[in-house]
Request: fold
Amino acid sequence: MSERCVPDYFDRQAVNEIDRRLGKITVEHNVKIAWAIESGSRAWGFPSPDSDYDARFIYVRPVDQYLSPWAPRDVIEMPVEGDMDVNGWDLGKAIKLMLKGNAVVLEWLQSPIVYTGDPLFKHEMLSLANQCANRINSMRHYFHLGTQQWERFLALGDAAPAKKLFYSARPALCLRWMRLNGDRSIPPMNFQTLLLEADTPIGISSEFEQLVAAKAQTRELGRTDISAEVSAFILGEYRLTEASLPATTPAQSPENIERAKSLFYKLVTRYSPV
Reply:
């Protein structure tokens, strides 16, 4: 059974082109795409009218390629053309990064916009993540991502586009969500869900919602202004995280490594092209 969930408001020509590119990849690279989704601002919940299409996928190669000492590259990238960006990761790369705490794969698995994929693949990968994801490293991921974007947003001053604000605000909300949700390691992908589940103060949440609505009517490079309260909220979350992060991160346990290896073997066996 294949899952597909593409909003009706998506440009039909763009969706057809993404489908065409995904099909071309499976043939030219001889891979099976187990999961293909939309990432970026469209999936996060704060698109602009001219937002790019950021299609991402996880693929499985033939079994014999995993047995070769000269394994192919673990990334497949198509040339970026116009507003179309399509690329993906090999299953092995996705699992290793997921266990290290890289939150990118976790977001791909949660995307509300699915071009194609097996729901069982999603379920089993998320189950592994819930057991094994490195919470501290996930916090580091969002901290470094968010603070870099925040510095860029501030450096642009009055010329700062709305997307730079959201690229820094969303990681801050992820960190707040993790701080308030005990040992849970996988924050929601959707910005509006984060606002709700991170117990965002009403005034801050209301301003963010207004900014989302304005961004939906403005080109990607449209500038934006924020209140001192929102600025303090974002910076405060980064300062709290910086103060709480330990100097070192415990290594993955042998048990988790074995769980990951077992799932990798099962998924390669299931999805490997003939």
About this structure: The CA atoms of residues 25 and 145 lie 29 Å apart. The chain is about 55% helix and 10% strand. The beta strands are 32-39, 53-60, 75-77, 84-90, 114-117.
